[in-house]
Design brief:
By secondary structure, the chain is an all-alpha fold. It is built from two helices and no strands. The longest helix has 18 residues. The termini are far apart.
Length: 76
């Protein structure tokens, strides 16, 4: 493994660890997950690892119960 590949895996492992809330004592888990991600992308022909968005909120779906909670639309 080249130094640049190792750096890509290290960066990906850090992103996974950070996204998981920076748990203590689980560095091997994130390293192997990043390495597997790198190897999977290499087999496909991609050399670039994808970035995980930081703790994205799931989309909120409005229900009928939420309709009454809306701010009234301003009328001109």
């Amino acid at each position: 493994m080249s130094p640049s590949e190792e750096m890509m895996i290290r960066q990906r492992a850090y992103e996974l660890w950070d996204h998981a809330g920076r748990p203590v004592g689980r560095s091997d888990e994130f390293w192997f997950a990043a390495k597997a991600d790198f190897e999977r992308n290499t087999r496909v022909g991609e050399r670039r690892l994808t970035v995980v968005p930081r703790r994205a909120e799931p989309p909120r779906h409005e229900t009928a119960a939420d309709w009454g909670k809306r701010a009234p639309a301003s009328r001109l």
